[in-house]
Amino acid sequence: MARKLPGELVGMLWKNYFRDPSQWWDKRCNKAGPAFPDFEHKITGHSLWIHGRFTPSWVLGELRITGAFPNDVVSAYVSLLRACAKNSDLSLGVKIHKDIQKKGLLHHCSDDLIIMYAKCGALEKARHLLETHKSKHVFSWTSLIAGYVRKGQCQDALAYFEKMQAEGLSPDAVTFGCFSKTCGTIRSLDKNEKDDADIGLQCLSRDNVKVGNKLVDIYTKSGAFANAQQMVNGPPMRNAAAWSSLIQSYAGQGQYGQALECFKQMQQEGISPNARAIMCLLKSCSTIGDADYGDKIHNEINKKEPLKNDKVLGTAVVDMYAKCGATTKAQQVFDGLHTRDIISWNALIAGYAQQGQGEQALECFENMKNDGISPNSVTFLSILKACGNMEAAEEGKRFHVRIVGEGLHENNIVLGNALIDMYAKCGKLEKSLRVLQELPNRDFISWSALIAGYAKQGQAEQAIEAFEKMQQEGFPPNKIMFLCMLKACSSMQAADRGEQIHGEIARQGLLMEDHMLCKALVDMYVKCGALGMAKQVLDEFPTQNVASWNALIAGYIQEGECRQALKCFQQMESKGLFPDARTFMCVLKVCGLMGLMEDAENYFGAMHTKYDVCPDLSHYTCIVGAFGNAGLLEKAAGIVQQMPCFEHPIAVWLALLGACQKWAYVKLGKWAFEKAVKIDNSHATAYILMANIYRAAGMLENAKMIEAMKIKNNTCKPSLCAGA
């Protein structure tokens, strides 16, 4: 059946009214304003307005015939005044006012005259009529208040807001809307006026909790959280509505920690948040990944039966636990839901997919089908993510076929992008490219997924080609894209292309404050052998970071420029940067290569005492190898003996063994060999080094014995270059 247009529906309802008026309530005598209906059906609740937008022209005639609307003259004047108000036609409105006075109909039309004058900006005339005729209609007072707000007369608006309540009239939703604009206007007053207005509003709220709650809402929405918090902390305002409003606003502004702090204060005062606030709190926990606070909010929900059985809240709890990584709890809550729909299933599947639990996501998908729930686009987005993370190309292909079969891919660029990403993560880049080419509309994300796939698979040339095509289609790259491209240029050692990308980054103004891009550029230039350009990037960067300097120092070492590497280390220190564990690895290696053993020992000792960097196994391996290669074997052995207990320290013993091989030191070599095979008797390198030591010493029988041990212990690990 075709859906009726609004005009057709209203016409049908009016015909229903005239067939049997007894089925309709006549609400005209008690109307609080134009927004309220003239008639309301007693059973269905349908509403009708005599002067409604879609009211057919024949209705007024029928009302006169039936006697339901005897005063068509008043009706005509009301319609004219509303037209004047709508068009801001003050001159015509004044003429109609005079005509109404002549006919003695002012009492019937005073409220519409007030509204007309207020909307036309003639506030003195509106005020005079309001006070002369003692209007008892809220909408007339609201019109005057709204007029003052539009004129920026904040104090007058507040005065009439207070006066209206003194007359015994309660503000409605529209009045509060004007009230909120009044408070917004307060933000633009000078300090003294603002303070006076704030004090007036807060005094007013002390006697009217509803006003106070609205004021809290207004303060938070205008960003005046300190004012809102001050009001909520006051005794009259310690209620669920005010606290909940504050929580919703904090969450809406992204201040999730503050929202949770409000919940903590509510708990201390024994006040429970409403359902909307709980939704905001759950979102806050999801965003910051705080499952512990999520538990408290979940417990709050379970205290109240209506909330406990609320399907929407239940789904939100599932979503919260899933996003916090607590998928076991998410599953438990999900299993306890009275009714499960596509939204709750999607929340659980998405949680598993986001946490890298692809198999569970696929299992959920099958369970959902068995439950009689059909998947939608959102479901497939999570499933494709799961397949991509698992690199399950065949599973992904099966879902791709189903998506196409159900027509979900048509004009759905998000789903198309998910397919590109899934195939790219699975290494099926030809398929990924084909999906991209078949998309009727591609966007930046489409290209990003493909380029990231090329970069991950080491297909740098294809990544650069796709990057250029993306730009030709009018999609400017962002930071993430630039990082991918710099990685591609590094692997290809394409310094020229990298320099072009460097220029694009600079033109977009992304470089000056972004340490990740700075380090990526330094890495790229270092790997391309353009150390001068790498140094220039660092020198021009306004704020320095250790990671970028480490990359440069490592680059100089790689190129054999050890003195320059050490100079960079000293320059880094002069800029006030503290070296980290990676820096010291480079420095110890440089000292070893240059034979600066005293410096190496000093730097190694200063790591913990001066720089608060605890040496790890790699540092011990490096310095033992350095001393060993320098022929200082006893010194190297002493460092090994002082070394703390590491979980699997075979590397340091192999470094010592390598040094013993170099200097044909049998006794120390035998000790190091015994320690190494005790840690791992299947490591081939230890046997090879020890056999070589024996051969160099002319102890051939011992060498054969070591080789026999090697075969017996089924050594399978490849030889390592000791000390490397």
UniProtKB/TrEMBL annotation:
A molecular function GO annotation: RNA binding
Cross-referenced Pfam families: PPR, PPR_2
Tagged with keyword Repeat: yes
PROSITE patterns: PPR (PS51375)
PPR repeat residue intervals: 137-171, 239-273, 341-375, 443-477, 545-579
One example of a Gene Ontology biological process annotation: system development
InterPro entries: PPR_At4g14850-like_plant (IPR046960), PPR_rpt (IPR002885), TPR-like_helical_dom_sf (IPR011990)
Database matches in SUPFAM superfamilies: TPR-like
Keyword tags: Repeat
Keyword Repeat: yes
NCBIfam families: PPR (TIGR00756)
Protein name: Pentatricopeptide repeat-containing protein
Species: Ceratopteris richardii (Triangle waterfern)
